[in-house]
Amino acid sequence: MHLPPCPALPMTYLIRPMTPQDLPACLELWCDTEGVVLREESDSPEALTRFLARNPGLSFVAMDQGAMVGSILCGHDGRRAQLYHLAVRSEQRRTRCATALLEAALQALAAEGITRCNAYIRVRNLAARGFWSSAGATLRRDIDVMTLAVGTRPAGRSGIS
């Protein structure tokens, strides 16, 4: 997919599906992007390769003259989608690159019949909050997210009763 430039902006990006070969550049971008948090167990090259294989054609990279300048990691469980690690190189920000990546992911999700997605952002990441709000996302105030490591038992439980 090749997106035309925005009339007021000179940038044109080639948006294409992310492949395992893109992961080293993606990891470098994510490490360099303030507000992106990487986890050893889920953001290793092996874990990300599994994620891409399970969710083919849903994650994208933005290329500018052969260099990766942005990416979005996207997957779904058949019901809801999750968006992770939307990142754009600082010098390419405010050129609609993030919007182009988001649109590519949303189009791919719609093609699979997914109607809702969640984006995970750090609570204090005001720039990300601004972007997601401008993209039409709403902040959920009716739920909290709780995380449980797989393979552990809840505290105070010795087994299944």
UniProtKB/TrEMBL annotation:
Q: Name one GO molecular function term.
A: acyltransferase activity, transferring groups other than amino-acyl groups
Q: Which SUPFAM superfamilies match?
A: Acyl-CoA N-acyltransferases (Nat)
Return the Gene3D superfamilies for the record: 3.40.630.30
Q: Which residues form a coiled coil?
A: none
Query: What's a Pfam family in this record?
Result: Acetyltransf_1
Which UniProt keyword terms apply here?
Acyltransferase, Transferase
Pinpoint the N-acetyltransferase domain residues: 13-151
Q: What is this protein called?
A: GNAT family N-acetyltransferase
Q: Which source organism?
A: Solimonas fluminis
